[in-house]
Amino acid sequence: MIFYLLDLIGVAVFAVSGVLVAAHSGMDVLGGFALAALTAIGGGTLRDVLLNRHPIFWIRDARYLWVILAAAGLTMIYIAFLPAPGHSLLIADALGLALFAISGAQIAESAGHSFLIVVLMGTMTGTAGGVLRDVMSARVPMIFQQDLYATAAIAGIAVYVILQKLGVPRTFAVSAGVVVILGMRLLAVVWGAHLPRLHAMA
């Protein structure tokens, strides 16, 4: 139940980030709901399709859609009267990335896949929705920018899987993975930490 609730929280915060991007891009209310849904379920849908998990998670459990509608609606009401707090988009995106990356990794792990597939599916779950959101709103996806994004997801998932292999309780392993991802993303936001640029020879 705890992990299910974390998954729903991840859906909610990604829906919030979708509405914030839609508002910044000048979309209407329908566009806000559409972008919220795309952000919240895009990565998990791609994961389920690739892992041949049917029915897809939000079709099997409609609570995900209700959470999206509620989170998006409340966010729209809030920003209609009050300005969004500073860095709210980056914080919501970081939290959604952390929760979804670990959730996706758990699903791949429970299906018996190898370490590499677990990392790939977790990273895809955490990042694909944000990529779709940014592409649909004509923004450069965060994953392709210089700061730590997919790298944070990979590191957090690796920590989670390694702790699981060492026999650490699942709750602690999940918490450690989430903290690593959040920490790296906030490090990138606050201090501008990033991977080195590629430099080609002239």
From TrEMBL:
Record's signal peptide: none
Ranges of residues in domain Glycine transporter: 5-77, 91-164
Primary localisation category: membrane
Ranges that cross the membrane: 5-23, 29-50, 62-81, 87-108, 115-132, 144-163, 172-193
Subcellular location, record wording: Cell membrane
Membrane-topology annotation of the record: Multi-pass membrane protein
Keywords: Cell membrane, Membrane, Transmembrane, Transmembrane helix
A Pfam family reported for this protein in Swiss-Prot or TrEMBL: Gly_transporter
Superkingdom of origin: Bacteria
Record-stated family: Belongs to the UPF0126 family.
PANTHER family registered for this protein in UniProt: INNER MEMBRANE PROTEIN (PTHR30506), UPF0126 INNER MEMBRANE PROTEIN YADS-RELATED (PTHR30506:SF3)
Protein name: Trimeric intracellular cation channel family protein
Organism whose genome encodes this protein: Dyella caseinilytica
